[in-house]
Design a protein that fits this description.
elongated, 17 strands, alpha/beta, 345 residues, 9-stranded mixed beta sheet, 8 helices, 28% helix
């Protein structure tokens, strides 16, 4: 077997990792890098544009520091494309990716750095101009209603829940819990209750995979639609693993950060915490990773229900403290809302 010479690949940084391309017509995408003890592993996808068999060659998770694993993968690839020196190519790939991963981004000289102009808030006091907000409460407390009202405030520029401070922009609502029919009814009902017509630019996406697994496709949607705010409902399902796991929660917030826009995550509390819960369910890294945190409690009354909000964390500036809304809901015979109005208390 005569192997082709192996030139160095070009290496391009992507939002999820790295893309390497060889002159021989081979491309490798390395993404979702994780570190565990002495390992650096990643998801590797290898494609070929070579005739007569272009297309996907291999996809698997690879320990970039394991000689044994590299040998196994190179033997698998040799069966598909026997004329290439896969051992050398994988060695190049692993060395380039690990080195770039360790180096990270270059240092910034703060004497020369000028922050971009902009407002500190998208929707005050709930959504800052960057980073995540976590809104948590028991199930059935109205937190999804409030999250949607905040989204409408930003998308329409109308004060529904919170005060819009930035130019109105499209919102992407990532939903693991309901469906498009229920979401559309709630959206139209809130807009009807506040005289917002036509409907503002809010895009709905039903989710199944975890936020980390779906992040690449979601980022493409954000770029295509010009989205300026994302809603993640809810963090429990978006984690894709045990809420108590630090690794799972850190991966969730890393995926949220990679979205490139401010985002609001809706979360739950344990039943044991009851109505007096002060923290969201799961790992302490939820609190550590959030820029803002709001706890929500619900109380019934004759006209609908009231929600009381307490700010549990703010990274910068004085805490807002508390907020509250009277939420009046008019329902159709089928139980879906037809008019919802938020009144600040």
């Amino acid at each position: 077997m005569s192997l082709e010479a192996t030139p160095k690949p070009t290496v391009e940084t992507t939002p999820d990792g790295y893309r390497l391309a060889w002159e021989t017509g081979i491309e490798a995408v390395v993404e979702r890098l994780t570190e565990h003890r002495s390992e650096v592993s990643a998801e590797l996808t290898v494609r070929s544009s070579r005739l007569p068999r272009p297309g996907l060659l291999h996809r698997a998770r690879l320990n970039l520091l394991s000689t044994v694993t590299r040998g196994t993968v190179s033997r698998l690839l040799e069966k598909r494309e026997p004329d290439l020196d896969w051992a050398a190519m994988l060695e190049q790939l692993c060395f380039a990716v690990v080195e770039r991963h360790r180096i990270g981004e270059p240092a910034i000289d703060m004497r020369e750095y000028e922050p971009p102009p902009g407002n500190r808030w998208l929707v005050e006091p709930f959504i800052a101009d960057d980073g995540p907000t976590v809104l948590f409460a028991r199930g059935g407390s109205g937190k999804s209603y409030l999250a949607l009202a905040i989204a409408i405030s930003h998308a329409s520029g109308t004060k529904v829940a919170g005060t819009p401070k930035a130019p109105a922009g499209p919102v992407l609502y990532l939903d693991w819990e309901t469906n498009a029919r229920i979401f559309k009814a709630r959206l139209r009902a809130i807009c009807t209750g506040h005289g917002i017509e036509p409907l503002p630019p809010i895009f709905y996406r039903h989710q199944v995979a975890s936020l980390a697994e779906a992040s690449q496709a979601i980022r493409s949607e954000i770029h295509r639609l010009g989205v300026t705010l994302a809603i993640v409902d809810s963090l429990g399902y978006a984690r894709g693993g045990e809420p108590e796991s630090a690794e799972v929660t850190i991966r969730l917030f890393a995926a949220g950060r990679a979205l490139g826009v401010p985002w609001l995550g809706v979360d739950h509390v344990t039943k044991a915490d009851g109505e007096n819960a002060e923290e969201p369910f799961g790992s302490v890294y939820t609190r550590n990773s959030a820029r803002l945190m709001w706890a929500l409690q619900r109380a019934e009354d004759d006209e609908g229900f009231r929600v009381r909000l307490r700010e549990r964390k703010r990274n910068d500036g004085k805490r807002h403290g508390e907020a509250g809304y009277q939420i009046e809901v008019q329902e159709a015979p089928d139980g879906l809302p037809i008019r919802v109005q938020f009144r600040y208390l």
